[in-house]
Amino acid sequence: MSAVLRAHDLGKKYGKRWALRDFTVDIPAGHVVGLVGPNGAGKTTLLKLAAGQLTPTSGTIAVLGGRPEAEPAQLAMIGFVAQDTPVYAGLSVADHLRLGARLNPGWDAALARDRLERLGLDPRHRAGKLSGGQRAQLALTLGLAKRPDLLILDEPVAALDPLARREFLQGLMEAVAEHELSVVLSSHLVSDLERTCDYLIVLVGSRVRAAGEVEELLATHHRLTGPRRDPDRLPAGQHVVSARHTDRQSTLIIRTDAPIHDPAWSVSQVTLEDLVLAYMDEPAPAPLRPVLEVKR
After folding, report:
1. Residue 18 domain-assigned (yes or no)
2. What are 18's strand-pairing partners?
3. Which of 142, 179, 201, 263 is least crowded, fewest Cβ atoms below 10 Å from its Cβ?
């Protein structure tokens, strides 16, 4: 499967501080990819590098087979919606569409017009007078009307109320189905990832802690509950992701492809939130390779 984004030893430094360092990943095309991790993990820096808004300090990044900052033709294939869903408060909705048409050679005016009509956005209204949800929908419309091959969204619904967030994500999934987009979506809200994403990347301290199709990740992770036990005594092939102990009981989240036969353990499936929190619980280790990477 071709990679929509490929990074190797990628790093970005602001002054003396590394925001992203020694980062390596392959993100496959044809997925809605959820990017999740704690604050400071490097998510926004990675997405801005992918969108050509930043240049790497070290390493390499290729998006859709080319360098995102290389030339306008490369950037034309990438749509980007930032965390604050930026629009110009003093411009009308129609002004934004005219600006989009001037800046983007592949601009789809019919798509933009039809989408805004379905949303009930009056072209005459100034962006500064729109609600947060309407501004987010306008920003998404601008990203989609660019007709990108890859749409990058950095926490696009973080500031929205639950209803506006649901409407935004519903519109996103309709666009993905209609236009067969590849999407990389950064979010702190696991419920949003469950609703939209079929591929997950957990990023902690510039390291990929887990990467793979959501169904496979959930199928290979289990919660074990039983008498207190040293995790190092588990059978080979059972990788401990997180461990919690009381005086008498151990609760582990493990990754394994093999059946679990030990009758001392009570075995249950994990949720996506369980999995994400387990990998975020401890700092990322030193190895450059992901702790878990599922490939088809």
Report:
1. yes
2. 13
3. 263
